[in-house]
Amino acid sequence: MRREPDEASTKTFLEIIQKLETIIQRLDALAEKIDKLSLEKPREKEPRSLPMDVATLLSLPDHLRKTALILCNLGEATAEMVAKETGRARAAESDYLNQLASRGYIKKKRIGRKVYFQV
């Protein structure tokens, strides 16, 4: 026994269809935006200045210069690795490396729980 839909249920059904069409349009617009963003190259934070040259090294205070020279020799290192070379505390080297990074002389990256610095 099949019953014919009444006017109220037909109206409700049409409203649901309109809302679904609106949702689909919005999802399509979002998908386009995501596609555009995924095509753009991710921007890596670059140092604000050129790589460290003699003038740059000479302009640094002695404690930062020593840290910077060790990092130049190592290429990439943690604060602990730099501290072994300088004979200073790891916490001090971490502070000096972070100062150099914030000034844009070196790059900083995190891999797991370790933070690596590189020229």
Would you mind describing this structure in some detail?
The longest helix is centred in the first third of the chain and has 33 residues, at 7-39. By secondary structure, this protein is mainly alpha-helical. The chain contains five helices and three strands, in the order H-H-H-E-H-H-E-E. The protein is rod-shaped, with a radius of gyration of 29 Å. Strands 1-3-2 form a three-stranded antiparallel sheet.
For the structure shown, list the relevant keywords:
single chain; 119 residues; mainly alpha; 3-stranded antiparallel β-sheet; 10% strand
Structural class: mainly alpha
Largest sheet: 3 strands, antiparallel
- DSSP, total strands: 3
- Roughly what fraction of the amino acids lie in strands? 5-15%
Shape: rod-shaped
Give helix and strand order, one letter per element, not per position.
Answer: HHHEHHEE
Helix count, per DSSP? 5
Taking pLDDT < 50 over at least 5 consecutive residues as the criterion, the unreliable ranges are: none
Task: Tell me which oligomeric state these chains represent.
Answer: single chain
Strand order of the largest sheet: 1-3-2
Relative helix content: 55-70%
Rg to the nearest angstrom? 29 Å
Distance between the termini: 80 Å
Q: How would you state the average pLDDT, rounded? A: 86
